[in-house]
Here is the input.
Amino acid sequence: MPNITMQMIAEMAGVSLKTVSRVVNKEAGVRKETRERVEAIIRETEYEPNPSARGLAAARSWLVGLLYDNPSTAYIIALQNGALGGCRDHGYSLLIHPCNHLDADLVSSVRGLARRSRMDGLLLTPPLCDMGELLDMLDERGLKYVRISPLEHSSRSPFVYADERQAAYRMTEYLISQGHSRIGMITGAPHRSGTEMRLAGYRQAIEDNHLQVDPALIVQGDYTFESGEAGARRLLRGPDRPTAIFASNDYMASGVLKVSAQMKLRVPYDLSVAGYDDAPLARRLWPRLTTIRHPVEQVCRQATELLIADLRGDPTGFDPGTIRSELVVRESTGPLME
Here is the structure.
C-alpha cells in the first residue's frame, strides 16, 4: 500500500496517533494487545517511518554517534556490530566517526559534528572517554553520552566496562601455574584505560604469587603488529630471557610469534606466548594463540542500550555491571620446560 502514514495506521487500529508513535518508537505505556494489533498492521502495510518527519515530531534525530580512536580493525568491527545491534532494536541509526585523540582540534571537531548531525547522544571509547575537555564540552551542550571502559568509574556519566584488570590477572596467574616465573609483558598504547588495567592485573598477579616485578620484563607497545615485533626483540635478546610473554593484544602477540620463529625458539616449548582480545587471527595462527576473549561487542551493545534508556528518560535505567572476559587456552602456551 503506497503512501501509508502513521495517521492511517492509527485509524486502521482504532487507536490514537500517539499510541502508534509509541509503538513505532518502542516506548512504554502501551498495552500488550494494543501493541500487537498495531505491529500486525505495520507489518501488513509494510509501513516505514520517515526518519526526518519522525525526528521533527519528536525533536530527536534518532541518531547515535560512536567515536573511537584505535588502530585495531577487529576492535572497530566489534564496536560497530555491538552499537548497530543496540540501535536496530530501538529504531535508531548509527553515525561512526574515527578520531585522533592527539588532534589539537578534536573538541571543536566533535562540537561541529554534533551540531551538524543533531545526534541525540554519543558512545565514547578509550581514550576519548577519559578526556576531560571533551566531556566538559558535551556537558555544556547537554548532549548525553555513555563511556566505554573509562579509567575513572565516576558518576559523571553512565559507563560500561569489562573486567580487563581481572582478566590480565587470570592470564598471568595461568602462566605462573604452568611454572613460568619470568613473564614478559608488552603493554598497549599509553593513555588508554585498557593498557593501564591490563598492566595492573599483570603486576598484581606477579606480586600475589610472591614473585618480583622486574621492570626489564615490561616493554611499551602500541597495539600494532610491529610494536609486538620490537617488544619481543627487546625481551628476547638478553641471556636471561623470559620463558613466557604476555602481549596486551593479539596483534602484538602475533609479532612475538614471528620473532620467535626467526630466533628458532619453539612455541610453546622454548617460549609460551599469550595475547588479549581473541581477535579472529588468534585462531588462524599456528600455534593458535592462548588469549583473553574480550567481549567488545557485548560491552558496546550494552553501552548503546544504556544510552538509549537514558535518552528515553527510562527511570529504571540500565545497569549492566561488570562484563566478564574469558581465558581461552590454546597451543601457544604450555608448561615450563626444564
Observations:
- Residues 23 and 35 are 6 Å apart (CA to CA).
- The mean pLDDT is 87.
- The chain is about 45% helix and 15% strand.
